[in-house]
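[recover] target loaded
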């Protein structure tokens, strides 16, 4: 009997689902937040009622066995309960000795308790809603269902390594926390992942948690995923020795260990950081130096950790995964600051990507001979826009300026961009991961010096310091960027060449960098055609690209979501498949 594999990322944030077929191909992957249009879906399971069973019917082979694979191991519940017991004992000790828990320590304990309780709530019975739905269908009687649970950092490593074009690589996983620690290392060879021992550290010392503390002090919400804002703000900052020294003391590297200082000292440092946090009414730009210091410390710790990993001598290729791999500013500097020669970061290195990792691990367990891929895994794995809904819109909306463009849609879009219009560009299946890569994008002309302010204020409705990405034809990458390497998932930030930056001010950040997306024809033919036509019209081989959403909302999932963004923002035009809608 055939087997299909359903991966569920069952973290308390960024839950997701992925489906892998009998051949080991990822046929569907999507974060729960997209369908619900609820950012990060804190505490919401990935097997959504009345949805997941339909996905299985649509993407799984009929009468196949279903293997449900999840992204936390059997040990997780006991480990999380142990953290809760430890926190309760610590609180009791201070209450008995002092009558209360010191405020800095209380905040630290509250964070640990929240994480542990939230994660426990997602572990009790993964796929319980899916199990019920299937029990009500005919499929239940003919489809055996089996469960497998995988260690959290192993699923991070699997999503990174199995999506890469490498035959041999070292893999670093760094995030907020896992079962026992916040980091892990693996050697990937012959299609198998082998843990590298000697770097384990039990506890809550975490580069991810360090960055979330900086995020909070800058006045942003890390649970809403606003670490992006720290990266954007850091470009406006300068070195402040006192801020740097304070943050540098908070996190250190020892071999392949990352650790915080003692709990008492960490509490003092957190209290100091908390006291200087941004208050209501203060401009984020007043905290640019703090963001700069936090980003610098993050990079220093990351590079030291990776140098120690490379010293194992097992590979010059690096796969970087875990939530920390979303720091594109650091990613762009890895090859220049470590001995690694090549880097792969999956389109979804955070916890949502673990659905793909778990499903692919289950498939590899059953098919260890599966060949490694030669190209990076396509990120276009999500839902497509409903043709039926789009047809209803065309028929009943009463909107006057509708054009059926056919195969000319890329050319029409490029002409509008060259005329300084801001457009929505929606085609095919959605990208998996947090970045729009040409299928759910807002696009604009990068030559315009005021385009950044225009989109931030009247389209995205977000802070003025937030940057936009350059999506560039691969063959021109080295003409525009120093130390250019292909970046298929917009996963790294590179420095513009001095003679190129003035040509595209709309995508040059305050520090002279840009978060690059590489475009190749074989990866996305329609988007490649659009940018190629824009190049023909303007002699500029790149466009401004940002995700099709407004601040605080996930990337648009449905035709209705896209129309809501279009008609309530300053977009000039929007393409959904071959339909052009203009205001």
């Amino acid at each position: 009997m055939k087997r299909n594999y359903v991966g569920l990322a069952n973290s308390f944030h960024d839950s997701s689902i992925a489906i892998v077929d009998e051949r080991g191909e990822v046929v569907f992957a999507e974060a729960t937040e997209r369908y619900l249009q609820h950012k990060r879906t804190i505490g919401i399971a990935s097997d959504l009622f009345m949805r997941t069973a339909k996905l299985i019917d649509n993407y799984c082979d009929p009468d196949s066995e279903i293997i449900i694979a999840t992204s936390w191991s059997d040990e997780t519940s006991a480990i999380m309960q142990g953290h809760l017991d430890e926190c309760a004992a610590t609180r009791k000790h201070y209450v008995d000795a002092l009558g209360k828990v010191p405020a800095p320590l209380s905040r630290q304990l509250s964070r640990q308790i929240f994480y542990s309780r939230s994660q426990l709530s997602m572990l009790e019975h993964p796929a319980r809603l899916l199990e019920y739905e299937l029990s009500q269908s005919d499929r239940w009687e003919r489809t055996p269902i089996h469960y497998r649970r995988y260690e959290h950092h192993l699923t991070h490593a699997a999503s990174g390594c199995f999506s890469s074009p490498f035959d041999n690589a070292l893999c670093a996983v760094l995030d907020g926390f896992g079962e026992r620690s916040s980091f892990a290392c693996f050697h990937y060879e012959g299609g198998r992942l082998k843990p590298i021992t000697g770097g384990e550290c039990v506890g809550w010392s975490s580069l991810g948690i360090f960055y979330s503390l900086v995020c909070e002090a800058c006045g942003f919400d890390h649970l809403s995923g606003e670490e992006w804002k720290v990266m954007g703000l850091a470009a406006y900052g300068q070195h402040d020795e006192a801020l740097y020294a304070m943050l540098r003391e908070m996190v250190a590297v020892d071999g392949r260990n990352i650790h915080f200082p003692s709990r008492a000292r960490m509490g003092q440092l957190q209290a100091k950081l908390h006291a200087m946090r941004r208050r209501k009414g203060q401009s984020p730009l007043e905290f640019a130096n703090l963001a700069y210091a936090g980003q610098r410390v993050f990079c220093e710790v990351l590079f030291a950790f990776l140098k120690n990993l490379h010293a194992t001598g097992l590979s010059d290729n690096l796969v970087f995964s875990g939530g920390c791999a979303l720091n594109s500013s650091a990613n762009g500097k890895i090859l220049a600051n470590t001995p690694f020669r090549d880097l792969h970061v999956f389109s979804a290195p955070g916890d949502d990507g673990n659905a793909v990792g778990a499903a692919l691990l289950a498939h590899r367990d059953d098919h260890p001979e599966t060949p490694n891929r030669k190209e990076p895994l396509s990120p276009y794995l999500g839902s497509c826009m409903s043709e039926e809904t789009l047809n209803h819109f065309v028929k009943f909306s009463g909107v006057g300026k509708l054009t059926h463009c056919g195969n000319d849609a890329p050319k029409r879009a490029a002409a509008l961009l060259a005329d300084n219009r801001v457009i929505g560009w929606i085609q095919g299946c959605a990208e998996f991961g947090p970045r729009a890569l040409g299928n759910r994008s807002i696009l604009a002309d990068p030559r315009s010096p005021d385009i950044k302010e225009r989109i931030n204020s009247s389209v995205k409705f977000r802070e003025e310091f937030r940057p936009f990405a350059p999506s560039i034809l691969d063959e021109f990458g080295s003409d525009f960027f120093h130390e250019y390497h292909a970046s298929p998932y917009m996963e790294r930030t590179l420095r513009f060449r001095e003679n190129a930056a003035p040509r595209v001010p709309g995508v040059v950040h305050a520090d002279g960098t840009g978060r690059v997306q590489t475009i190749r024809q074989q990866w996305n033919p329609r988007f490649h055609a659009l940018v190629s036509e824009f190049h023909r019209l303007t002699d500029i081989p790149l466009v401004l690209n940002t995700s099709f959403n407004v601040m605080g909302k996930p990337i648009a999932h449905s035709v209705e979501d896209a129309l809501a963004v279009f008609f309530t923002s300053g977009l000039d035009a929007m393409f959904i498949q071959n339909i052009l809608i203009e205001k």
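[recover] notes: The CA atoms of residues 468 and 507 lie 5 Å apart.
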